[in-house]
Amino acid sequence: MKKVRLLIILALVLALFTGCTTTDNGGKDVVDTKVVNIATDIDLSSMDHHIATDGTSFIAINSGIVGLTELDADGNVMPEIAESWEVAYNDDGTTVYTFTLADANWSNGDPVTAADFVFGWQRLADPATASEYNFIIETIALKNASAVVAGELPVEELGVKALDAKTLEVTLDLPVNFFLSLMAFPTFFPLNQEFYEAQGDQYALSPANLLFNGPFVMTEWTSGNSYTFVKNEDYFKAAEVKVDGLNFRFINDTQSAMLEFESGNLDYGELVGAYQDDPSFVQRLQGYLWYLSVNVADESIDSVNLRKAVSSVINRESIAVNILKDGSVAAEGIVPKTLATGPDGKDYRESAPVFVATDVEKAKEYWEAAKVDLGVDTLTIEVLFEDTEASKAVAEFIQSEIETNLEGLSVTLKSQPKKSRLELMRAGDYQFGLTRWGPDYADPQTYLDLFLSFNNNAGYNNPAYDETVLEATAGVTARDAAARWEMLKEAERILLEDDCAVIPIYQNGGALMISTSVQGIELHTVGIDSFKRVTLD
Amino acid sequence: MGKYVLKRVVISLLTLMAILFILFLMLELMPGSPFNDEKLTEAQRVLLYAKYGLDQPFFVKFYKYVINMLSGDFGVSYTINKNFAVSGMIASRLPITIKLGLQAITLGSVVGLLLGITAAIKHNTWIDTITVMISTLGVSVPSYVFALGLAYFVGYKLGWFPILYNMSKAAESSVLPTLALSVFTIANVARFTRSEMIDVLGSDYIRLVQSKGVKEWKLILRHALRNALIPIVTVIGPLMVGLLTGSMVVEKIFAIPGIGSLMVNAIQMNDYNVVIAIAFVYSSLYIITMLVVDILYGVIDPRIRIAKGAN
Description:
The structure holds two protein chains of two kinds. By secondary structure, chain A is of the alpha+beta class. Chain A has 17 helices and 19 strands. In chain A, strands 1, 8, 9, 10, 11, 12, 13, 14, 15, 16 and 17 form an eleven-stranded mixed sheet that branches. In chain A, strands 4-5-7-6 form a four-stranded antiparallel sheet, with helices on one face. In chain A, a hairpin with a 5-residue loop joins strand 4 (82-89) and strand 5 (95-101). Residues 4-9 and 15-30 of chain A have low confidence and may be disordered. Chain B is built from 13 helices and no strands. Chain B starts with a helix and ends with a helix. Chain B is mainly α. Chain B has helices at residues 2-29, 42-51, 58-70, 86-121, 126-140, 143-157, 170-173, 175-201, 204-211, 216-253, 259-268, 272-300, 302-310. Chain B is globular and about 85 Å long. The interface between A and B is large, with 64 and 65 residues.
């Protein structure tokens, strides 16, 4: 009797499952095609390169669309659509780049022209687009960019012109050292005006509403699940592409992703490293630098000695090695490692001094001086952080370091979701805020600009600092690479040694699993990770 | 009966409106905003707020939302899939969640009923004890634990079924999530069925039927089960809705593109329109289920039907 029942249940279940079978796409399991399976923990947000803001989206865009230049595995600038270029420094201070474009085509057969770049940049700057990344066009000091973004000038006034179909002229107000490397960034990629306008408000919402000119074309995109690229045979450098396609899978849960990787169904994923001995385990250093932002506008804590006490008491090495254990390293300044190479051919951090270090005895002296500055015997400060595991652990460690070593100084912790933390910090409603910054381009300025008096919400305002940074950006020094480099170090010194206006903590590491049969994934501290030259055994 | 149903439908619609208003108000009061990345300047924020109409007063926003909603426009996603129509996002995901939910509730009810009936008939034997143990475990252990366990043992170690949901192999890859989701239903249904059946089997009219020499299976199916079903239907209603919300975690673990995982994502990313729309869908489902359960009472229990007819 029981067996019969069991059979009935099984039959019912089977009927249910088979009855619900949906369309079978088929063809996905063909064994002899070389497809790289990639896990992402964030869903693909946008394929519109002027609207996208996150790394996952940029990686996808970068797989299908290319710009003037690209970065090689080491982050060096290489020609892409621009096969060559000339630079002219004019007496009026402007810098003019003239690019000659290669014979590349869009996936609908249209040639990629200089006009596509002009239109793309105009759309980026157009206030009607409301691009969250339009600041980057001001970063490269493109002529009239700020006025266009502010809506004061029409987009046609931007300093980018198509001299003919294959010649593009870009006029910058300043000699921007990192301009060419930024040309590999998706926000600067071209856009085919005719196609774009034909799509209306559907542009980039599905593979059919997109054009590609790069190594792969997108064929499928199921929101919340997966998106697929296949090799673009019409890509003008198709010979460089060694695999048949890329298959991105959105997996929100790390444990399932890990099981899927162990089952051999994934080739690449950013996964937490519980598998340090696994040959697939890879650690990378990321560009993100985490720091304590100090609200100097809050008079109850406005003492340089207090900030120095806090900065000196934190054991950053211990945070990186014992707490985070993900390849993170202790910060030596506000500019991270492997971000920028100077005119001397060395990494910036190699030639710049170590500006922040642990010294508990000194911290105690600073704290004594701070008590006099502020006229108090005891003090409670608040540390704001976001409710992630890593931030919580770091904030708690900082709390214990301070309370153990600095008598009379206590710390309250305030945890908020990231979006709320940012909202509070933006409004200046915090004392010490654990926050981070990711670089937009390979130059120390991407960090130093943050603390200009007109750029920060923390109330930091030192004319000497402003002057130094601006001189390195726009002054006479800006044209002398070596002198500029020294000037940037001087700015960092003022910020951290004189004023201790921010307290750098650590540079983010990341754990990856890369299948041993996969080679050639290019990971960049700055810029977008690339699967263009990936190979699969 | 018709009048009764109509009245219930009107009340349900009013409840939905009230829920929508409260949702709107709660999101308005919630800290944070979809547009506050580190990199955004104040001027950009003003632009974005204006573009999506977030700069308008609360009641204007609410009024516009309701008007648009009536024509099926739930706005666009701000962060998860930028500029995607929320209605489209939900339309493609809701069937997956509902399908899984139905599979789980069917499997769960059938297995639960059989377990419960068996336990009641074999009251105070080892079969009964095991059933009680299973149902206690199923109720107290959260479904994500089962989900992880199934993913690890059945999916990874044994390799019988895929761990991750695959659109092109929907049937195969929905086995593990269905099992994980059904455990709670099995446990609940088994528990209720068992206690109700024990009650009913001990009642006088069953003894009467027994004394008339009716066959055992007929006695159980026609006389005992029918009476035991009333309270069970009551629990299946809420259980179904519980499945939808419970599926949030299970969907995350098996990477299922349903609305549960979308909801979790939307809350984390302050994607207002998506949060409101899904909460609205959940509320609608809940209200509809309760409505159906109320009507089903009448069908199963003639006394209720007659009483309502008299009204």
